[in-house]
Amino acid sequence: MKPSQPLPCREWAERLAAAHPDDLAPAERAALEAHVASCQACLGARANYHLMDTLIRGLPAPAPLPAIPPRLAQLWADEDGRVVTRVAAPQVAGNGRGAADETGPNHRGMEQRMSAMSPLPAERHATPPRATRRPAGWIGASAAVAVALLFTLVFLSLARGQHVGSGSVATPPAARTTPTLAAPLAGDWRAAYLGQDGRVHTVAPDGSRDLPGSRLPNARFITDPLPLADTAASPDGRSLAYIAGDGYGSGGAISGGPVAIMNLVSGATVTASLARGANLFWAPDSMRLAVDTYVTGTTNNMLYIIDASKGHTTAVSPTYNRQPAVIERAIGWIDADHVAVIVDRPASLARVALPHGTQLLSARLSGGPNLGVASVDVGMGAVRYLADLVAPPDVYLSPDGKDILIASSTWQASAEVINTATGQVRALPNITAAFADKFVHTDNAGFAQGGNWSMHVAWKPGTHVVAMSLAAASAQLGHLPGAAWLDGLDATSQPTGVWLLDLDADSATQIVSDAYPLAWLPDAQTLFASAPPPSSTSGTATSGTAPPTEGAGVGPALYALTPVAPGVKQKVLATTMVVFLGLVRVQHG
Amino acid sequence: MLQPMRDPLAPPPPADDVALVALVERARAGDHAAFTALFERFNTRICIYLARLVGNEDLGRDLAQDTFLAAWRALPEMRDPPRFTAWLYRIATNAAYSQRRRSRVIRWLPWIQHAERSTESAWSASIVPGPEEGVGEAERVRLALARLGPQRRACLLLQVEGGFTQREIAALLGISEKTVSVYVSRGREAFRQAYRSLDNDAQADGKGGHPR
Which of A75, A155, A322 to mutate against chain B (most B CBs within 10 Å)? Predict the structure, then answer.
């Protein structure tokens, strides 16, 4: 049959088909890119290959096994009736002592050594694996049966229903990776910020500071008050990712440039092979980043995963019900494999025809708020829809990936929590009531009516307590990191200070009246916050809700707040902060 | 560079990898709960991979059962826990190959004739009802995959579904990296042409091909 599409160049075909970032050396990839830029056949083939991947990943997923295979369950039941434990093979690179050295003689024989050469020795294992014996007991067998029943029940419950419509309750994923969010690492944690001298500074909550660090490559921090579109410090405190701003887009938002990742230990910086980014989220392993290309009002936002060590970028191809899903923006990592995102509601997805074999792309037919929260498997692209949203929402994911806070904002004057495992929505009436009279509606071109939004949310480690501020478009808020573009708007100030929202108890407590939370230290005792500079730039004060007063500082101040009933202990750490970068871990030596 | 910041330790392994290795080690020692956690973690991925590989969901699930049983039995001899994922995929692939060798009833090969002869039997049973165009598309994708030889199909799926590098696939299948590169390249192109052809046929038949 005559091919209906032009074949790629023979000499480039293999490199064109290499999809994994590590398949090609940088020089090979650069050469390929140069060729593709000048070859329509290869360009078309590559586009088709990407669509092909989306198609294959978008095939309806078969139902997984409902439980541990019965033969294995039976095997375990038999084992529990007569064995203690299996004997692990000795490590090749070790002292030659296996677990058998601790539990008894190692009976591993020739068969075992032979089978070690093959990963599939099943045919040789007609009997249960080697094990040392222990007294038989009904407790073990009963426990095994109980466990098997439990898993059966769990999987049966998980197997009910695969998709969720626009309702508020979703079924859990069929097989979900156990969250591996590590406990906060011990170490000397510091707040990192970009100072007005253009350098990265780090300061401890007691005010001690390190020598100024380097400037950030690509960041135009001297002439531009908003040099960075987004920043994120890695969970292990060893790397800093940032998106250098390269101008202002529609609506005054910063237009993001390349994503850069700086290793704070070595000082090396890599730039991701991604032209533009908007929002950064570190994976729990501190090795990957999710980045979206969110631009308000557009429909071509994408989600990418970046290998932080090399800068390699992989596009996620989200699919829902066999159709490409439109991602508005990312929220954060639910676990090691899933990123929470805001998506167009499935009903608004539609397929359109595009030329040159790209007919499988999707586009949003309807405009306006039509959004929902979903989970995307970053490897498979499968989208699990969780719940509808009122747009545009202020949405924040808890560090443990379990809860999504839909915070009070102009467009939704109520607080809710979405459980990412079940999709269940839980209203928070007390928190809603706390903010009901805090909204100041303003008129400005950018927000029509309204202008309030939650901002600078900081999750208290190990809890579901959130430090949050409600802000409004106001020239008076120009000192805030990330809010300078509001200067000049005719609006009313809305400083509501720092509130602590206990999502489990549904309670809200204001701790200071004019500051904005940035991040909690891992000890959950100290909160870094931003506020106008005080008249005196040093010292420690304890107050109730008295705000730091406007003073002679030349930039926004960085505070360490320690809630101490009935007040808050405040310490000024810096007064020339331009951008808060995050928490980093310092090691002296 | 921030001063003074220094890490005398080598970069730590990813937390996720550490957790996985810990599970594998516990499972190697006979911990049922640890292996159950591994099962939960890989159940969907392995089922998807095998279903795509053999073109039949029920058979894919059967082979997944064999895979996990074989994995449990072989775990004590596993020598490289950090490479558990690739090891498990190799077991799954071998299970599929063994099944193909054992049974002539299940037409794993030649799929091209099987697929062209019957698009109703093997495929339609597992297709979830949905929009007409979506069903047609799923059929075309499956048929296009079915037109690939088993090794090309395995290489392609390990790359697309498994996320492995070509070097990892080579080690996993016991073939050279160059061979994987050729299989993937030719597999991709064969899939593209097959899908296009099927799409054209569907349009000619008025059965929901993509508009142009």
Answer: A322
- What is the torsion angle, in degrees rounded to the nearest 10, for the CA atoms of residue A191, residue A194, residue A199 and residue A203? -20
Q: Nearest-CA distance from B139 to chain A in Å?
A: 9
DSSP A23: G
**Do A81 and A138 form a contact (C-beta atoms < 8 A)?**
no
* Contact by Cβ (8 Å): A344, A330: no
DSSP-assigned beta bridge partners for residue A375: A340, A384
pLDDT at A189 over 60: yes
Q: Is residue A352 pLDDT above 70, yes or no?
A: no
Q: Under DSSP, is residue A277 helix (H, G, I), strand (E, B) or coil? A: coil
Between CA B33 and CA A567 the distance in angstroms is 47
DSSP one-letter code for A264 = T
Contact check, Cβ <8 Å, B189/A8: yes
Backbone angles phi, psi at A508, to 5 degrees: -135, 130
Cα A584 to Cα A243: distance, rounded to the nearest angstrom: 17
Residue type at position A356:
H
What strand order describes the sheet that includes A188-195?
A: A200-203, A188-195, A577-586
Q: Name residues whose C-beta falls within 8 Å of residue A272's C-beta, 6 or more positions apart in sequence.
A: A258, A259, A260, A261, A289, A291, A304, A306, A311, A312, A313
Check if A322 contacts B (Cβ < 8 Å): yes
> Tell me, what's the ipTM?
0.76
User: What pLDDT is recorded for position A587?
Assistant: 55
Q: Above 50 in pLDDT, residue B72?
A: yes
Q: Is A249 left (phi over 0), alpha (psi -120 to 50) or beta?
A: beta
Q: Which of B17, B28, B36 sits opposite A68 (nearest CB)?
A: B36
> What is the pTM assigned to this prediction?
0.47
Q: Give me the helix-helix angle, B84-102 and B166-173, nearest 10°.
A: 50
CB contact (8 A) between residue B192 and residue A287: no
Confidence label for A160 from pLDDT (cuts 50, 70 and 90)? very low
Among A89-93, A466-470, B35-39, B156-160, which stretch is predicted with the lowest mean pLDDT? A89-93
By CB atoms closer than 10 A (0-12, 13-18, 19+), residue A27 is: exposed
Task: Please indicate whether residue A414 or residue A441 has the higher confidence score (pLDDT).
Answer: A414
Average pLDDT on A265-281 reads 77
pLDDT of residue A202: 85
